[in-house]
């Protein structure tokens, strides 16, 4: 008779697998996932352990979707299929399993740009945080909820959670990349609050620290830092520096090949149009458009259509549909920025009534940003 493995042994292996997921170490995570699946076949019956395994498969796929080209893992269950599987036993979950279930569901909603819903799940998960003894997991929680609050312009709440995350991550030398991530997100908050000098300082520090690490995954992060620095320079009206940084971001293969690469392509097209380099801008616009379609990035498809109307050929229907999507997803900061540009566009064309209409939309979006706090 074959020897049956104790479920506790498999549980230890799943925890090791999760550590690799948190560190975005795809090769190690893939190896451990395969080992866990093999051991489960030889394991004693334990329904809670199987739920834990299902939750980790879900988290693993969220990692892959955020980093890898979509077609590479097409033969595997999608996150939607995995979500359906883990939702079934959720009512009876308690403690750590309940925490993971709520936390990972929040991440799923975040990836679908449902930021208020993500925060709702994160806050429910926070009630179970006392079941989490691992300080790095506590840090991960604060980092993720900080990102969600940042997305809805709740900057001071975001910064508060980032402070907690950074203090915890700094205790473990294996999480230097996460400390860099905290600095980057602080920089992003500063950027949104128009504290551009501070934002630039945080990005400069993050870049210096990233270059000091000899790790493959840091290359992707360096690409993101260049992208974010480009945003700072663009807001500061330094178009030359903005263009240089977006180009550097695009040149980082490990960044441009991820689902986030379309953002840099979009911004490059945007800044080139502002520099009156229409021919070059069209190239990056078309490249971004193709990437957005391939990866089903509806947010950037919407933004690209608006940019095309501003600088190439105005299409009232596409503008209306695109703004409708941004409004539906409650992406109020982007909505406000783009409606302001559309207002300026119409004023320059002496379409004063239309210009006033878009500026009213801008004011409405800015009001919604203030109201978001009430929704959470």
UniProtKB/TrEMBL annotation:
Organism of derivation: Bacillus velezensis
Alphabetical list of SMART domains matching this protein: TPR
Top-level taxonomic group: Bacteria
Higher taxonomy: Bacteria, Bacillati, Bacillota, Bacilli, Bacillales
Protein name, entry field: Aspartate phosphatase
InterPro entries the record matches: TPR-like_helical_dom_sf, TPR_rpt
Gene3D superfamilies: Tetratricopeptide repeat domain
Pfam families documented for this protein: RapH_N, TPR_8
């Amino acid at each position: 008779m074959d020897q049956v493995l104790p479920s506790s042994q498999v549980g230890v292996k799943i925890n090791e697998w999760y550590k690799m997921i948190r560190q975005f170490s795809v090769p190690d995570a893939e190896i451990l996932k395969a080992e866990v699946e093999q051991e489960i076949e030889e394991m004693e019956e334990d329904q809670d352990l199987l739920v834990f395994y299902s939750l980790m498969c879900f988290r693993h796929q969220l990692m892959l979707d955020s980093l890898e080209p979509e077609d590479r893992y097409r033969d595997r269950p999608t996150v939607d299929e995995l979500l359906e599987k883990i939702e079934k036993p959720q009512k009876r979950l308690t403690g750590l399993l309940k925490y993971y279930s709520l936390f990972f569901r929040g991440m799923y909603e975040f990836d679908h740009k449902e930021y208020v819903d993500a925060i709702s799940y994160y806050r429910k998960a926070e009630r179970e945080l006392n079941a989490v003894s691992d300080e790095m997991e506590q840090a991960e929680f604060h980092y993720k909820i900080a990102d969600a609050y940042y997305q809805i312009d709740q900057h001071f709440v975001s910064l508060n959670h980032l402070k907690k995350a950074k203090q915890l991550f700094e205790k473990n030398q294996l999480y230097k990349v996460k400390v860099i991530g905290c600095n980057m997100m602080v920089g992003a908050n500063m950027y949104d609050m128009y504290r551009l000098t501070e934002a630039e300082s945080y990005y400069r520090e993050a870049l210096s620290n990233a270059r000091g690490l000899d790790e493959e995954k840091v290359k992707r992060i360096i690409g993101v830092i260049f992208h974010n620095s480009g945003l700072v320079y663009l807001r500061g009206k330094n178009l030359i520096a903005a263009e240089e940084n977006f180009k550097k971001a695009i040149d980082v293969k490990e960044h441009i090949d991820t689902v986030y690469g379309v953002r840099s392509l979009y911004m490059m097209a945007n800044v080139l149009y502002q520099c009156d380099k229409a021919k070059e801008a069209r190239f990056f616009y078309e490249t971004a458009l193709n990437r957005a379609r391939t990866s089903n990035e509806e947010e950037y498809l919407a933004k690209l259509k608006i940019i095309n109307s501003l600088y190439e050929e105005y299409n009232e229907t596409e503008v209306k549909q695109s703004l409708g999507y941004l409004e539906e997803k409650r992406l109020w900061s982007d909505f406000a920025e783009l409606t302001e540009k559309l207002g300026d566009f119409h004023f320059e064309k002496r379409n004063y009534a239309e210009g006033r209409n878009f500026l009213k939309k801008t004011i409405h979006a800015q009001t919604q940003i203030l109201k978001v706090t009430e929704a959470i």
